[in-house]
Amino acid sequence: MSGFLIRLVISAFALWVADYLVDGITIDSTTTLFLAALVLGIVNAVVRPIFVVLTFPLTLLTLGLFLLVVNALMLGLVASVLPGFHIVSFGAAFLGSVIVSLVSWAASAWIGPSGRFEVLVVERRPRP
């Protein structure tokens, strides 16, 4: 359960960064921010795989770059469903989805699958 909450906070932080950096994205309140992170997680778990399968030929043709468009569509879907979360254009959704992906990736690099912080420890042993 703690892993879920940590990932929810990471997603909310990534959405906040996108709101701060992109003029076309507006999130009205903190509650809306966390709801948007939750709904985005649900949409990415349920709807996004269907879109990825349906658009596989186009994704293959563009060498995977069409997945950026799919991510922007998922962010736009969340904004259309959730009141208080506004995206004015596809360009804003595209840039916002890139920012959310980068921030989430960077923050998740420190979190393991169990939801705990991962630290790599290297032990040096003297040679015999």
Verbal overview:
The protein is built from five helices and two strands. The chain is 67% helix and 5% strand. The protein is mainly alpha-helical and 128 residues long. Strands 1-2 form a two-stranded antiparallel sheet.
Major sheet strand order? 1-2
Give the beta-strand count: 2
Q: Can you give the mean pLDDT? A: 89
Q: Which of globular, elongated, flat, extended, rod-shaped describes the shape?
A: globular
Give the proportion of residues in helices. 55-70%
Main sheet makeup: 2 strands, antiparallel
Low-confidence stretches: none
Total domains: 1
Number of helices: 5
- Strand residue percentage: under 5%
Q: Give the SSE string.
A: HEHHHEH
Distance between the termini: 46 Å
Helix-strand makeup class: mainly alpha
Radius of gyration: 17 Å
List the helices and strands and how they pair.
Elements: H1 2-21, E1 25-27, H2 30-54, H3 56-61, H4 66-81, E2 85-87, H5 90-108
Antiparallel strand pairs: 1-2
Helix pairs in contact: 1-2, 1-5, 2-4, 4-5
